[in-house]
Write a structure and sequence with these properties.
By secondary structure, this protein is an alpha+beta fold. Helices cover 66% and strands 9% of the residues. It has a 5-stranded antiparallel sheet. A hairpin with a 4-residue loop joins strand 3 and strand 4.
Length: 211
């Protein structure tokens, strides 16, 4: 089946913009990690609101205001345990990786626009590799965040006096993280389509040179 460069250009524009928008929304929202303690709050000995949802930058309690997470870049002289220091290192890592992936998308979008207009094989190839590299960074950020959440959960379990409370608490990842996964898939697809466009342009150029 013959694939036209125009169809590929339209498809890659839609998928690339979708990937960018999904990642922007995910980074800007606070539903990466959700703690639902509504059952515990409704119990006869219920306490204050414990339910919360958090993002990359802050944690928000239900029916209450949000407060920022600990700055992961200013803890060298802080009197904290090694486990807390490791959590801050992990937090700082994915806080850097996610915006970095956005920056790479912006550069990829600019080079992709120019390469499609110029029908430049090498520029299309470079753009495809750039998007795939950005997708790798996004995947690394997701992996670090999941590992961070698991380590933070283990730390919280150690601090709890009664582990029976965990039965009454529902802890899960939220829709913000789901948007990051969608963005990652779209980013990989964008890179693959740019590589396909480079192949189409390369084949066309070789045919023109052979005539």
């Amino acid at each position: 089946m013959k694939v036209s460069l125009g169809a590929l250009s339209l498809f890659v524009a839609l998928v690339g913009v979708s990937s960018f928008v999904f990642l922007v929304v995910a980074i800007a929202t606070d539903f990466w990690y959700i703690i639902d303690a509504s059952r515990l709050e409704r119990s006869p000995n219920g306490t204050d609101a414990l339910s919360s949802h958090s993002g990359l930058w802050r944690t928000c309690r239900v029916r209450s205001e949000c407060y920022p997470l600990v700055n992961p870049f200013w803890h060298e002289n802080a009197n904290i345990t090694d486990s807390h220091r490791q959590l801050l290192y992990m937090h700082g890592t994915f806080v850097i990786l996610m915006p970095l992936s956005l920056i790479l998308m912006v550069f990829g979008g600019m080079t992709g626009f120019i390469s499609i207009l110029a029908r430049a094989y090498l520029l299309l190839l470079m753009t495809g590799l750039l998007f795939l590299f950005g997708a790798l960074i996004t995947l690394t950020g997701i992996s670090v965040y999941i590992a961070y959440s698991a380590a933070a959960f283990e730390e919280a379990v150690c601090l709890l006096r009664s582990k029976d409370l965990l039965v009454e608490i529902d802890i899960r990842f939220g829709w913000s993280l789901a948007l990051v996964w969608i963005s990652f898939v779209a980013e990989v697809l964008t890179g693959a389509v740019f590589l396909l466009a480079a192949r189409v342009v390369g084949v066309k150029q070789r045919r023109e040179q052979a005539l």
